[in-house]
Amino acid sequence: MREVGRIDVAELFPELDAELIPLLRGLSEEDWSRPAVGSWTVKDVAAHLLDTAIRRLSFGRDRLPLVPPDRPIQGYEDFVAFLNDLNAVWVRAMKRVSPRILTNLLEKTGAELSEHLAGLDPSGPALFSVAWAGEEASESWFDVAREYTERWHHQQQIRDAVGAPGITGRRLMYPVLDAFLRALPHTYRAVEAGDGTAIAVEITGEAGGEWALVREGGRWQLYEGAPDDPRTRVRMDQDTAWRRMTKGITKEQAAERSEVTGARSLGEPVFGMLSIMA
Fold first, then answer.
1. Handedness of CA 212, 130, 51, 42 (dihedral sign)
2. Which tens digits make up the pLDDT trace of 138-196?
3. 124-162 burial by CB neighbour count: b if 16+ within 10 A, else e?
4. How far is CA 252 from the centre of its chain?
5. Domain 2-167 - what CATH class?
6. Phi-psi region at 225: left, alpha or beta (left = phi > 0; alpha = psi -120 to 50)
7. Span 183-272: which CATH code?
8. pTM (two decimals)
């Protein structure tokens, strides 16, 4: 085992966009209207990608002052509700924009976003903390990795909806899974166990890997690699992993598609883990 380290993905954003833009340009009118996730269509998901790119460029690159919430934020659930409303307002407004214009805007802002993110100091403070990992302040590399997971999984939702092949090769998908797994210690924060207790999490497939959650000093610590003598082992394929961690399937569905050996009670929280704001 080795301690989990920095995830460097800035150079991958142009590659992700190189997959997205040709896909969108080839969609039919019917494709743009297909249901993608929840009540959102393919076009709605694409509009959301544009929204997040513009927001990050505006607040991060252009130093636009952050707009204060229009309501009291007294906890995580309040913040999620605020974000959901923010997203919904944009998506509704973009219904008046054609797919062609939307795609052109995504191409332009995607290039600008890639350039901006590549110029950030990875060890500097992030503009936004990665709240789903339990962090109140994050280093820039983690915030950028979080942004990468957002753009990857929303493109996957579009690809699912229109029947296009997924982006599941190791180069572009492994960093997503690696970032998602950083939510494990926060997910287990209320799970008690003796020091030295180890939980192995194995994700199979080309983009998969092994991680270990170990109880040390009364806290859970995350490592890359397999522990020598885990109390519990959770094994799932990469498709199940990303879908569960983005709320695409239920925790019951994820459990049915996975294998738990050892103390099952210690493995069950894995299926409740979400690596998005939800």
1. positive
2. 999 999 999 999 999 999 999 999 999 999 999 999 999 999 999 999 999 999 999 99
3. eebebbbbbbebeebbbbbbbbbbbbbbbbbbbbbbbbb
4. 20
5. mainly alpha
6. left
7. 3.30.1050.10
8. 0.95
